[in-house]
Write a structure and sequence with these properties.
The structure is a single chain. With 668 residues, this protein is an alpha+beta fold. The protein has 4 domains: 73 residues, no CATH class; 281 residues, D-Maltodextrin-Binding Protein, domain 2 (3-Layer(aba) Sandwich), CATH 3.40.190.10; 219 residues, Roll (Dipeptide-binding Protein, domain 3); 60 residues, no CATH class. The protein is 38% helix and 19% strand. The protein contains 21 helices and 24 strands. The strands form 7 sheets. Strands 15-22-14-21-19-20 form a 6-stranded mixed sheet. Helix 20 packs antiparallel against helix 21. The longest helix is centred in the first third of the chain and has 29 residues. The protein is globular. The termini are far apart.
Length: 668
């Protein structure tokens, strides 16, 4: 029984020994660690490395977990900061390299600035390979190119131009003022047969020193500086070739210019046509060097072939895309640039061919009765804008003061007031039949009189009988043709026993044909019988040359300067002039002459305003719309920043900024 008390005493004794041992061997170390940590805290406001190294020995498991999450958060934050810093200070810049391939409809012929306006493909290549005294930047501002500066004297006739120093041709030869003089003299030489001959007639070149020359005009001409974008050709290559042979020289296919790109090679098909043309950067170029290492142009017979190649990703870009093709193409990697072009479509009214058009109320009714916004939406697929005069937006003198709003009721009232009464289809056909038969008789009489030496001829009984047979045959044909007129037309009009009918002539292009049909529908709603005549390019040129049309739906490219003189001055009524409406107005002539004879913007604006007012009052033509130029490029190409052009070749104005490759640079 004494065992239990003795065991208890023994246990207490041993427990005491163990506790003493723990105090002297285990816990004193922990106490020392704690004292050291606490001691360090007293000495330092922030934990030192020795403290942090020992922290795991006296924090709890939960505290360890919290600390771990905090460390992860700190590391993540530092990573985000590093990425942010990288992105903020990294700059992606264009790098040299890559090949750009563009398709063009047509083939090169004479790659020479003196003749390039005759062929769009030549004009495109000249823009890449040649340089002029001036050029257009991507905003279409006229800026110096080979020229360094220029001044214009008080008479506005003498241009003093200084060229940049150390210019070189692509073959390394120096480009000098003598080259400029040679180019101008070649244009002015009648044997050269340059289409620029008219524009440079009377211009006198005079060298002042090795860097300065003057160009003196016989009279002020505001658009003249635009002509100085013409590429300069090298005298050392062309001086030995007779002027009459310049156009036919083989040098034209392997030209030497001073533009950003130079000739590298070309390949031909089995028919001898050049099927592709490869360019490389000009090492002597005086401006910013191009980024693209290879620039290749591929040539096609027709638009359909070029379009299919673009669809199949075989080329990077196409020189032009039609409005219909834009809707058909399904290539997501394509940027389709919609560029403003000073091109407008108009219906020119020929009052000599159709005497009915001499009625001003009729001409006003024809204009008010056309829904121009519908034309833009349907014919242009929205790629354009309705216009109301010959001066377009962004051009000097543009105004909206003479805007015509589509109003079918107003147009109908004008016809009513002008005496055009509504009649039935049957009545119209009968009256029209008599008109055409009488016109045929008059034509026969005129021919007989001409054959009789200008004297009226009395027909024999046999000739009279024969003419009657021909007349009956003609009536049968006319009747059959008249029965074909649109049965959907509900009303017609007549005045003084004449039916109201107009022939609308246009060129065989989808946009114009569709526009002509829409105009026809608009006019039919007013009671006008419309006959559409669609001609190919060659026939339309012949019709225009001889002014054999009543109403002509056609397009005009006004160019860099709005100068409407060639299209509206009375001196241009007959061929080769381009006054297609036969517009004659002495006041309008005065304003056109004033505007082109001064560089004062305010004076030009006033003159063009007065000119537009006179045109609006007379209604010699119906202005329809200005269409955009669609230019597709693969979105891998960067650096294209244009929104306006004056000519198709202007799409290359900023070509030295185009790039395919990139590089990273740091910027602090």
């Amino acid at each position: 029984m004494n065992f239990i008390p003795r065991f208890q005493n023994w246990t207490k004794k041993k427990y005491g020994e163990i506790k003493v041992w723990q105090q002297t061997h285990v816990f004193p170390q922990k106490n020392l660690d704690q004292k050291m940590v606490l001691g360090l805290i007293k000495k330092n406001k922030l934990p030192a490395f020795k403290q942090l190294r020992l922290i795991h020995k006296f924090i709890t498991a939960q505290e360890k977990k919290t600390l771990g999450l905090l460390v992860i958060l700190i590391i993540f934050s530092l990573g985000v900061m590093a990425v942010e810093t990288y992105l903020q200070h990294r700059v992606i810049k264009p790098a040299v390299g890559g090949e750009y391939v563009e398709g063009i409809v047509g083939y090169p012929n004479t790659i020479n600035p003196l003749f390039s306006s005759l062929n769009q493909v030549d004009a495109d290549l000249c823009r890449l390979m040649y340089a002029g005294l001036f050029k257009y930047d991507q905003a279409m501002n006229l800026v110096p190119d080979l020229a360094e500066s220029f001044t214009l004297d008080k008479t506005e006739k003498i241009y003093t131009i200084k060229i940049k120093p150390d210019l070189k041709w692509q073959d390394g030869e120096p480009l000098t003022i003598e080259d400029v003089g040679f180019t101008i003299n070649s244009i002015q030489n009648a044997e050269t047969q340059s289409p620029l001959w008219v524009s440079f007639q009377g211009v006198i070149f005079n060298k002042i020193d090795d860097s300065t020359f003057t160009l003196e005009l016989s009279q002020p001409f505001a658009p003249f500086t635009n002509l100085l974008t013409t590429g300069i050709i090298p005298e050392h290559l062309w001086q030995e070739i007779p002027q009459k042979n310049l156009r036919f020289s083989s040098i034209n296919l392997k030209p030497i210019g001073a533009g950003p790109y130079m000739f590298d090679s070309f390949s031909k098909d089995s028919k001898g046509n050049i099927k592709s043309y490869t360019l490389k950067p000009n090492p002597y170029y005086h401006g910013q060097k191009p980024y693209l290492k290879i620039f290749t142009l591929k040539f096609f017979n027709d638009q359909d072939s070029a379009f299919e190649t673009l669809k199949n990703h075989q080329i990077n870009g196409l020189s032009f895309l039609t409005k219909d093709e834009k809707e058909k193409i399904n290539r997501k990697s394509l940027n389709i640039h919609s560029l403003r072009l000073p091109y407008y479509s108009t219906i020119f009214l020929n009052q000599k061919s159709n005497l009915l058009l001499r009625s001003k109320p009729l001409r006003e009714a024809l204009e008010s009765g056309i829904d121009k916004n519908q034309l833009v939406a349907v014919s242009l697929k929205g790629e354009g804008l309705a216009i109301h005069g010959p001066i377009l937006p962004f051009q000097v003198g543009f105004t909206q003061d003479f805007k015509i709003v589509y109003d079918e009721k107003l147009a109908s009232k004008k016809l009513d007031d002008d005496g055009w009464k509504i009649i039935t289809r049957e009545e119209f056909i009968e009256k029209r039949k008599k008109e055409l038969y009488q016109a045929w008789l008059d034509d026969q009489t005129a021919k007989q009189t001409a054959a009789n030496g200008g004297k009226p001829k009395k027909l024999t009984a046999e000739e009279t009988a024969q003419q009657k047979i021909y007349g009956e045959e003609y009536l049968v044909k006319v009747t059959a043709d008249l029965e074909k007129i649109d049965p959907q037309q509900k009303i017609y009009r007549q005045k003084n026993n004449y039916g109201l009918t107009i022939k609308l002539t246009t060129v065989n292009q989808p946009e114009f044909v569709q526009t002509a049909n829409l105009v026809k529908e608009n006019w039919q709603d007013l009671g006008i019988q419309v006959e559409i005549e669609v001609l190919d390019n060659e026939k339309i040129k012949e019709v225009i040359k001889n002014r054999r049309y009543e109403a002509l739906l056609y397009g005009i490219l006004s160019g860099a300067d709005p100068d409407p003189f060639p299209f509206w001055h009375s001196s241009q009524v007959n061929y080769p002039g381009l006054n297609l409406a036969g517009f004659v107005n002495r006041q309008a002539d005065d304003n056109l002459e004033t505007a082109r004879a001064t560089n004062n913007v305010a004076a030009r604006t006033k003159a063009y305003y007065n000119f537009q007012k006179l045109v609006a009052q007379d209604v010699p033509a119906i202005f329809l719309y200005s269409s955009s130029y669609l230019y597709p490029q693969d979105n891998s190409l960067k650096g294209f920043n244009q929104y306006r052009i004056f000519d198709a070749a202007d799409r290359f104005n900023g070509v030295t900024d185009w790039y395919l490759n990139t590089k990273n640079e740091w910027q602090w």
